[in-house]
Write a structure and sequence with these properties.
Blueprint lengths: L1 H4 L5 H30 L5 H22 L9 H18 L1 E3 L2 E7 L2 E3 L1 H19 L7 H20 L4 H17 L4 H19 L4 H11 L10 H13 L24 H34 L3 H26 L16 H31 L14
Antiparallel strand pairs: 1-2, 2-3
């Protein structure tokens, strides 16, 4: 059975994922080797070796989710919902504070950020619920509102950590799944109006720290000593890299000038050392993975699989936009990592877990398409998501 599955995997997607991960490992080593020595007094390969271990663990998880049929996760919904709420709640009791947010759980030397894995859990939950209720989507109050209440509870728990960046990414993912589920236009407009209202209301309760992040993003030179410092150093790195870059390992912003060069702002190191072409390479690979994921979702005849593919692709795409937006000053700095590239165990393992599911869906799609062609070779039908009437 497993041998048969290998015939239907999308190998262009697999190659793109392995390539971007390999590139990420190289850049983590380059960005962190000097930074680790200066900031923490550790060996030059300290962060690289940890990231390599995270990659191996993530690759094993990816291989498992590539093989396990994606339909199995439908039976885990209660565990996913209650588990997500419990683990997010436990962060307030046992969590470790890092960068002004209590969002980490420590197990000895191992640190885990639960909100990262909750994102995938919510994608599975919402995809399963909205696919199950396709014939009842007109009943907005009884079919659409209950899963959105679950989302709201999870959103609030993440927001209160406070981790506004992850909470907003989760909101964006939820929006993609809802829009692709076949909801009526009037219900979509109602949700958009409600979301806009909540955003306006929420803006009145932003902490001073969050407000200053906006000031640092849009007026960095007026706050160059603190809130705008990181973005200014990112500008310096990108500008000095130019078109061709200074050469791999030759950047100087990682020598203590640019904070977090191996995590949130790793793209600035890429720009300084590999120039415009290096940044274009990263964006092209991530864009290929996201677009490929949406194509898989469009071709999937199973609505649950289709929404799952849209959610996973949306998560990678939104996180990429938020990270690049923060590094370029288009968006406030939120501490969101660049998928597959930035240093971080939770982020890398989650990303590989998620794309493993995506590859499994592509296997299902390719198998179904070949089966349909053999049964009806003269009939070529488009594989689009069936929407509720």
């Amino acid at each position: 059975m497993i041998k048969k599955m290998f015939k239907y995997y999308d190998y262009s997607l697999i190659v793109a994922i392995l390539t971007v991960c390999g590139f990420g490992l190289i850049m983590v080593y380059s960005a962190s080797s000097i930074y680790g020595l200066i900031r923490y007094g550790v060996s030059s390969d300290y962060f690289f070796m940890k990231q390599l271990i995270f990659f191996i663990v993530g690759l094993i998880c990816c291989l498992v989710t590539m093989i396990v049929p994606f339909h199995i996760y439908k039976g885990w919904l209660k565990f996913i919902v209650f588990g997500s709420i419990i683990v997010l709640g436990s962060v307030f009791l046992f969590g470790k504070v890092s960068n002004n947010a209590q969002s980490w759980l420590k197990f000895g030397l191992l640190g885990v950020q639960p909100s990262e894995f909750v994102k995938l859990g919510m994608i599975i939950y919402l995809s399963a619920i909205f696919s199950k209720k396709q014939d009842r989507l007109d009943h907005f109050g009884t079919s659409v509102v209950p899963p959105l209440i679950i989302f709201a509870v999870v959103f609030i728990l993440i927001y209160l950590q406070p981790d506004l960046g992850t909470a907003l990414i989760l909101a964006g993912i939820t929006g993609i799944i809802v829009l692709c589920s076949g909801l009526r236009k009037r219900h979509i407009l109602l949700l958009l109006a409600f979301t806009l209202g909540m955003m306006l209301l929420g803006s009145q309760f932003l902490s001073n720290n969050q407000k200053m992040r906006f000031a640092g993003a849009y007026h960095p030179f007026e706050h160059k000593s603190k809130w705008g410092y990181q973005l200014i150093q990112s500008y310096v790195a990108m500008a000095s890299g130019g078109i061709n870059g200074k050469g791999l390992g030759e950047g100087i912003q990682k020598y203590g000038y640019l904070p977090e060069p191996h995590t949130d702002f790793i793209i600035a190191v890429v720009a300084e050392e590999l120039g415009f072409w290096g940044v274009l390479f990263v964006i092209s690979l991530l864009a290929f993975i996201v677009i490929k994921g949406f194509i898989i979702g469009i071709r999937c005849k199973d609505i649950y699989g289709s929404l799952l593919a849209f959610g996973i692709s949306g998560m990678i795409g939104i996180q990429t936009v938020v990270n690049l937006g923060a590094a370029s000053g288009l968006l406030p700095i939120t501490g969101v990592t660049l998928p597959f590239i930035s240093y971080g165990g939770s982020s890398l393992i989650l990303s590989l877990l998620s794309v493993g599911i995506l590859i499994n869906i592509s296997c299902y799609v390719n198998h179904k398409r070949k089966k349909d062609r053999l049964e009806s070779p003269a009939i070529q039908k488009p594989y689009l998501v069936t929407k509720a009437k």
